[in-house]
Write a structure and sequence with these properties.
Blueprint lengths: L6 E6 L2 H12 L2 E4 L3 E5 L5 E6 L18 E5 L2 H11 L2 E2 L15 E4 L5 E6 L1
Helix pairs in contact: 1-2
Length: 122
């Protein structure tokens, strides 16, 4: 039996800032409806941004819900770091900081809706 991942769904109070960020960062194409934006980018499952009026921005690494986070690998951490920041990410820890339980060199960011994601050399 095979099981595959077809989509990752994240909540956001406002669809456009969140989908625009991921589009700038990952490329691909965005399809918009009133309640969902669907990003299709090569090499990724569909990323679905779902309108959630009561969305509470995660406050990583504080206690509480993270809701979701993505671990992404890149062959050029410096270039990916620059792209993430230019696309609108916020770095949650200084570059080079060692995260609890993370391998050395990983970097942690937040999307405009506050969803944490990690970039690691790979």
């Amino acid at each position: 039996m095979d099981i595959g991942l077809t989509a990752v769904v994240v909540d956001a109070a406002e669809l456009e800032p969140e989908s625009a960020f991921w589009h700038r960062f990952l490329g691909g194409q965005v399809t918009r409806t009133a309640t969902h934006h669907f990003l299709r980018a090569d090499g990724f499952p569909v990323l679905v941004i779902q309108r959630a009026a009561g969305h509470v921005r995660p406050r990583w690494p504080e206690d509480g819900t993270q809701q979701v986070h993505l671990d992404l690998t890149t062959d050029d951490l410096t270039a990916a770091d620059d792209l993430a920041l230019r696309a609108g990410a916020v770095r949650l820890r200084p570059a080079g900081a060692v995260e609890p339980g993370a391998e050395r060199g990983g970097r942690v960011y937040a999307s405009p809706a506050g969803h944490p994601f990690c970039l690691r050399a790979g």
